[in-house]
Amino acid sequence: MTSALPTSRSVPGSLPVRQLVRVEDGERLHSLLWHADAGWRMISSAVLGGGIGERSWILNAQVPHGYRRTDPDRHLADLARAAGAHGAGVGLMTAADVSRHARAHDGGVEASVTAGLTVRGWAASPADGSSRPAAPGTINTVVTVPVALSDAALVNAVATATEAKVQALLAAGYDCSGTPTDAVCIAARSPRPGEEVHAFAGPRSVWGARLARAVHHAVHSAASQ
Question: Whole-angstrom Cα distance, residue 160 to residue 111?
């Protein structure tokens, strides 16, 4: 069974988010659910709804530390449906308690971060990679940008958010670039007739700079809890 807590307030131009709670295998688990109207495009590395496209919701779901399901995309879809989300969406998961998420905003950009840092390290490692999923520790980053971004700018925004995440982790005293399962979702407004589509989201662009500051603050806060 899933129940909803009051909707969190968002900055103008961002997406409203609800905090949900459910009991699964005897454990009380939390989730965050953002509802979007038809006017949002997203880019994500998520296991469900990854890539670039129109999306109508984002779910960041807490799962147990000993998570062993081999169909996380199906699990996330079921959780979203049970919470009243319909259509195409983005589903992320983490073993971190998402009720302790950190939020920050800067100039209309809003970032929400959950940080599970038990399993962490540097991206460039001499160890061989694996085709099997890593344990769900995970830093999940969700960002909303209230303007239209081109496909290239959406990719640029992912890079900017990742750079800001690493900078914040180092500032918080962690000797790492993240965890093996970090995921990101950037949501930007779909272009409206006559509206400018921004072609850049690097850290020195107008919207990239705002995104970087918001992500840095949210990651630092989440990692310092």
Answer: 13
- CATH number (domain holding residue 33): 3.60.70
Q: What is the total count of domains within the chain?
A: 1
pLDDT per residue as tens digits for the range 97-123: 999 999 999 999 999 999 989 888 898
Nearest to 95 by CA among 20, 161, 30, 48: 30
DSSP label at 121?
B
CB neighbour list of residue 186: distance below 8 Å, 6 or more residues apart = 42, 43, 44, 143, 145, 149, 154, 157, 158, 161, 211
197 burial class (0-12, 13-18, 19+ CB within 10 angstroms)? middle
Residue that the structure tokens 């709670």 belong to: 21
Handedness of CA 152, 183, 162, 7 (dihedral sign): positive
In eight-state DSSP terms, residue 162 is H
Say whether pLDDT at 74 is over 60: yes
What global pTM score does this model have? 0.90
21-25 long-range contacts, Cβ below 8 Å, gap at least 24?
A: 21/99, 22/79, 22/82, 24/64, 25/64
Residue 185 belongs to domain spanning: 2-127+134-223
What is the arithmetic mean of pLDDT over 63-83? 92
Strand partners, 7: 18
